[in-house]
Description:
The structure holds 2 protein chains of 2 kinds.
Chain A (H helix, E strand, L loop, with lengths): L2 H6 L18 H17 L5 E7 L2 E10 L10 E7 L10 E4 L29 H13 L9 H6 L3 H11 L9
Chain B lengths: L2 H20 L6 H17 L14 H13 L3 H33 L2 H18 L7 H18 L4 H12 L6 H9 L2 H4 L1 H20 L8 H21 L5 H37 L4 H13 L3 H15 L7 H18 L4 H16 L3 H9 L47 H6 L6 H17 L6 H14 L5 H23 L26 H17 L14 E6 L4 E6 L1 H11 L5 E3 H8 L4 H13 L3 E3 L4 E4 L5 H6 L19 H23 L2 E2 H7 L10 H13 L3 E4 L2 E4 L2
Amino acid sequence: MDQLSSSLAPPRTSHKSPAATTPLEGAGSVTKRLGNELMTLMMSSSAGISAFPKSDANLFEWVGTIEGVSGTVYSGLTFKISITFPPNYPYVPPTIKFDTPCYHPNVDLAGNICLDILQDKWSAVYSVHTVLLSLQSLLGEPNNASPLNTDAANLWDSPSEFKTELRKHYRASTENSN
Amino acid sequence: MTTYPLENLVQTRWQNTFDRLNGGEPGITGLLNISQAWNTAREFLRPRDIREPNSKERNLPVVKTCFDALNEAKLLPRLLETFVEDIRQQESLITAEVSSFMAKYDESEDVTVVKSMLRRLVEWWKAWAPIHELGYTLLSTFNLEFQTHLFSILPSSFPSAFKKLCQSTVGAEPDAQLWGDFERLGLLDRYENLIASVCYEQIEGQVLETCVGRWNEPMLAGLRGWMADKIVPWMILPYARGAKTHEETRSMLQGIGSRFDFHVCKTLCDLRTSEIFDIIVDYPDSNCALLDLKECLQRVDQRSQLVQALRRLNRKRLLHPGADTKDILTQYVLMIRCLRIIDPPGVLLYKVADPVRRYLRERPDTIRSIVASLVGEGGDLVDENEPIQPLQTQFEDYSDPNWEPEAIDAGPEFRTNKPSDVISTLVSIYDSKDLFVKELQVLLAQRLLAIKDGNFEKERQNIEILKLRFGDAALQVCEVMLRDMTDSRRIDQHVQSQKASNLHPTIISKHFWPALQASTLNMPGQFKTIQQTYAKEFTTFKPDKRLRWLPHLGTVELSIELQDRTVEVEVSPLDAAIIELFGSGGKTAWNSQEIIAELGDIDNSSLNKAMMTWIDRGVLFDRGDGTYEVLEIATSAVKAARPPAPKRPAAQPEAPPVVTVQQQEAEQMRVYWKFIEGMLTNLGSLPLDRIQTMLKFAPGYSRTIEQLGTFMEAARREGLVTESGGQYRLNK
Lengths: 178, 732
């Protein structure tokens, strides 16, 4: 397991060990796991990250909120993301997209994210909580080696210009979309 | 030219008429005969003033021939008209009589005046009435004319006078003549309602007189007996005068009789309906009244009135803040029993109980009251004789041979609850029995912790009974609690056998007990040593377990040796801890701050209370500068200086040691707030009902939307959220 991502894994989460379930157990166990993750997320008090199911009918579609950490160029900005869980979660990572336009080296203009733990480095011990934390830190520390947005990657080293470009792209979410 | 046919026509008609009147007699003798007959007939019929001597010749055969002649000549209709004319001319005579009688009555209010007036009127009628032999038409025309006139001249005071007259006949000797007069004058038909109302009033009077407030004996049978004795004989005259045989009387009275019987039922039903609340309060003494009411309701369809009345009375007298929850429950239970008597299927109960149940649901101490009565703590909600039944959702048993369809006024939500007993009904006030089980645990915890002599049999018995109701699974936790108590004793015996100790702890499994009050009390001095020694012994006995002390619960028996005396007391651990401070070490004077620093975080009021306990017992005294010292030698001076403090029960913790369900709920609500915060952060603003449905993600969420609304309102007041147009959003 990768050094970086394993450090992000929760030491021992309260919910059921995912190793005990098999993919064949069906949606019931996935719902249970998602419910547990929601509970853990709600009870954790990590500043600036949050997520909640979009509607009470579907536990597989969540909306998340990430606030930029102060001290980074994203400070003071709030980003909405959408999280879609596959039916065989947690063996397959959730699909995460930025809904708020995010000018970032590892986020393309459609909001797709390039983050190793959301692709090949995914592990079933990760949870929404850890993913959100990773995304929050990704904002401040992009992986410029594999950019999705090359312009942003090139601008990264000149913070003031990057900030101007970021402000140009950023649109505060209209909260009353629902 | 044109006049000829007309002239001819007139002439033909004239001839025909003449022939008819003349009857084919020679000359005009026929006409003369007719004229003679006319005069005789008219004179015979002419209404006379009966005050004049009667000179009417009753030469019937002559009159008869006259009439026949007139009939032949087809003059009878004409004669009738003339007769009516004549009557009209004479009517003023009657008018004068009636007004003089009525004037007399108005003065004296004496019904005999009315009676004699009617008598007189009948005389007039008899004098004027044409004889039967002259045919029915004549008589009925006369009757109509006479009555029309009579009714037109009777003054407005007559109906009430007539009613009084009728009333005076009730219970008196039957006066057949009077009723005959009534009929002759057409008063029976015209004032039928009045006559009936006389009877109704009699019934109402009787019911009010005999039945108000008397619920301990059946009334309906007595009333029916009274009807048979008093009213039925009277009824024969107005309603069954013409009857010749007993059978005929019966059949004629049947219709009106059942009307009156209905009225008896209705009056009694109205009365009992208005008294229903007190009847219920009086149950079971009022059983007879309920049975009466049941029978009346079968006859009179007033079920909805009963429901409304009882609901109104409940609202007015029961469901208000002034009523004790226990009283409401008692009344509700009585209501269940009473309405079961009136209406076994329970439709009435269902309708009446709904507001009561809803109200009880809002009361915070309802569950506690019910649970308290379940375990036999005061209150007699539970009927000992009632068989204990398990709580189960009831299904309709269609294979039941005694199955009956739902009553016609049962609403769509009505569910029969035939087999359920009172407790099941009470428990079903709440949607789930979990609340009860929880409250039961809290109560059991309190009771178990209060037991000192180690006799848990009663509690065990209670739990066994409750198991029958709630099922084994629900009471598993209570089982564990009970076992903890017995285990504690066993463990204690073992530990004592290893190393004798003054400490006898109750060892409980944290997981299965309701939350107990936390405390930061540190027992000082020898208590600490005792605790530690005991804990060590315990760990040797049960290596995988660890003792966590709740030192503030329990009692301490102390014997304090002072210079001149020994004080034996049983006090709370806090009291003991304080006195230990004074006794150990060299420091003799302590102030509050020092005590708090030594013993941990104690709030001031409980500290003051503890100090007062010791001062009351004459062990400590206040030096006046906020510090306390041990009173080694009891001096009368100090005692006199201290005003006699009110005796307080020592060593009694005021608050029960167990955290109540409400406190637990408040704790849970904090969890739900996290969820609300989470959803509002991510989904923007949400209406209340969306929040409610979204909260299903929170484990164990079971609040109603009203409770949530109250909570959100509180959050809004605290400035956590803002609300506009029913949408809540986080306040940033």
